[in-house]
C-alpha cells in the first residue's frame, strides 16, 4: 500500500505543477494582449487626430539659378509637411510630375521651372483631381539675403492671411483654395510643433500681382516682424488637371518675360533712331546756313540809300556841305579835348 500512496502523491504534485504553468501562460497571454490593445489604441488615437494627410512635394528643374534654389530650400524649411526630390529634366513631360508625387506619397506639388537661366515659374498642383496654377515669380528675396530681425520656431504652424479681393472673382477664389491646401500645415502632423508663431500673408495689388510675405508674431500684442522669404506671383494660366488638361483661366494682362524684354529693346531702338534723326536734321540745317552765307544776294535797299552817289541838286549840295562842316567841328572839338586830357595825364605821371 505504501508504494501506491507514493505514486498518487507524485501524480497530484505533477497535476498541480501543470496547473500552475497553465496559469502563468494564461497571465502572460493576457498581458501581451493588453499591451497590443494599448498600442492599437494609441495608433488609433494618432490616426484620429492626424486626419489631414496632405504632403507637398517641392523640387525644381535642371538649370535653376542660385536664387531659385535658395527659395526652394526656404519653402521646405517653412513647411514641415514638405518633401524634397532631385531635379527634373526640362525635356521630360509635365504629366510626369504627378507620377513622381504619387511615388513619394504626396498630394500637392510645388514645382519651380527655370527658363533661359533667368525666368522663374512656379507650378502649384493638386495631384488627385487638379487644378494646377502656373505663376511667374518676380522680385525674389530669400531669408539669408534679407537678414530680417524676425525668427520663428522650425516646424511651427502658420496662420494664413488673404486679401479681401480673393473672394471677389472666381479665379482668385480657386487660387485661394490651392494656396490654402498647399501652405497650411496639417494639424497633429508628426514633424510639426503645436505652436502658431508666424503669419503667411497673400495680398493682391492694383496691377493684379500676388505678394507673399512671412511675418513673426512677436508677443501677445500681435506685433509683426518680417522673417522672409518674399516674392511676387503673376498668374499666367489655370489648368483643370494635374499639370495637364484644359485651360480654365488665362490671364489677359499677362506678358511673358521675353515679350517684355523685346518691348524694352524696341523702345531703346526707337529712342536711338529718333536721336539719330535729330542729328541728321541739325547737320542739314547747318549746311544750308553755310551755303546761304556764301551766296551773294543783291540788296536793292542799299542801292537806294547809297551815300557815295553824286548829288545833282545844288540846294542839296549846300545842305550836305553845312552838315559835313558841323560834323567836322564836333569831331575837332572832341579831338582837342582828348588831346588836352592826354597831356594832363602824361604830366601827372611825369611829376
From TrEMBL:
Question: Which lineage?
Answer: Eukaryota, Metazoa, Ecdysozoa, Nematoda, Chromadorea
Q: What is this protein called?
A: Ribosome biogenesis protein BRX1 homolog
GO cellular component annotations, sorted alphabetically? nucleolus
Question: Which ranges carry the Brix domain?
Answer: 54-244
Q: Give any GO molecular function from the UniProt entry.
A: rRNA binding
Q: Which regions are flagged for Basic and acidic residues bias?
A: 39-48
Taking the first listed entry, what is the main subcellular location of this protein, grouped into a coarse class?
nucleus
- Name the family: Belongs to the BRX1 family.
Which keywords does this Swiss-Prot/TrEMBL entry list?
A: Nucleus, Ribosome biogenesis
- Organism of origin is Pristionchus mayeri
* Region Disordered: start-end pairs: 1-48, 330-351
Keyword Repeat assigned to the entry: answer is: no
Which is an annotated Pfam family here? Answer: Brix
What is the role of the protein in this entry?
A: Required for biogenesis of the 60S ribosomal subunit.
Amino acid at each position: 500500500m505504501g508504494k501506491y500512496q507514493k505514486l498518487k502523491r507524485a501524480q497530484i504534485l505533477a497535476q498541480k505543477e501543470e496547473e500552475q504553468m497553465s496559469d502563468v501562460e494564461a497571465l502572460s497571454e493576457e498581458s501581451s494582449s493588453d499591451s497590443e490593445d494599448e498600442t492599437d489604441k494609441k495608433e488609433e488615437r494618432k490616426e484620429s487626430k492626424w486626419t489631414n494627410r496632405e504632403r507637398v512635394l517641392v523640387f525644381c528643374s535642371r538649370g535653376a539659378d542660385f536664387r531659385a534654389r535658395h527659395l526652394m530650400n526656404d519653402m521646405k524649411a517653412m513647411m514641415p509637411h514638405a518633401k524634397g526630390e532631385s531635379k527634373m529634366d526640362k525635356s521630360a513631360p509635365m504629366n510626369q510630375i504627378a507620377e513622381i508625387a504619387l511615388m513619394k506619397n504626396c498630394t500637392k506639388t510645388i514645382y519651380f521651372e527655370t527658363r533661359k537661366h533667368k525666368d522663374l515659374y512656379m507650378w502649384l498642383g493638386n495631384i488627385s483631381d487638379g487644378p494646377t496654377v502656373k505663376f511667374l515669380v518676380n522680385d525674389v528675396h530669400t531669408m539669408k539675403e534679407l537678414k530680417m530681425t524676425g525668427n520663428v520656431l522650425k516646424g511651427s504652424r502658420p496662420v494664413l492671411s488673404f486679401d479681401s479681393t480673393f473672394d471677389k472673382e472666381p479665379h482668385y477664389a480657386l487660387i485661394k483654395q490651392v494656396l490654402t491646401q498647399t501652405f497650411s500645415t496639417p494639424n497633429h502632423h508628426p514633424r510639426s510643433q503645436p505652436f502658431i508663431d508666424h503669419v503667411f500673408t497673400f495680398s493682391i495689388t492694383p496691377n493684379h500681382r500676388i505678394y507673399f510675405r512671412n511675418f513673426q508674431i512677436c508677443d501677445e500684442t500681435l506685433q509683426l516682424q518680417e522673417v522672409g522669404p518674399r516674392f511676387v506671383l503673376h498668374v499666367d494660366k489655370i489648368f483643370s488637371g494635374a499639370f495637364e488638361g484644359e485651360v480654365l483661366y488665362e490671364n489677359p494682362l499677362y506678358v511673358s518675360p521675353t515679350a517684355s524684354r523685346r518691348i524694352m529693346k524696341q523702345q531703346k531702338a526707337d529712342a536711338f533712331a529718333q536721336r539719330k534723326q535729330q542729328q541728321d536734321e541739325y547737320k542739314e540745317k547747318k549746311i544750308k546756313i553755310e551755303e546761304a552765307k556764301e551766296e551773294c544776294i543783291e540788296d536793292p535797299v542799299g542801292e537806294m540809300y547809297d551815300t557815295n552817289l553824286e548829288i545833282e541838286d545844288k540846294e542839296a549840295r549846300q545842305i550836305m556841305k553845312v552838315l559835313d562842316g558841323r560834323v567836322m567841328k564836333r569831331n575837332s572839338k572832341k579831338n582837342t579835348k582828348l588831346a588836352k586830357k592826354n597831356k594832363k595825364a602824361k604830366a601827372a605821371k611825369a611829376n
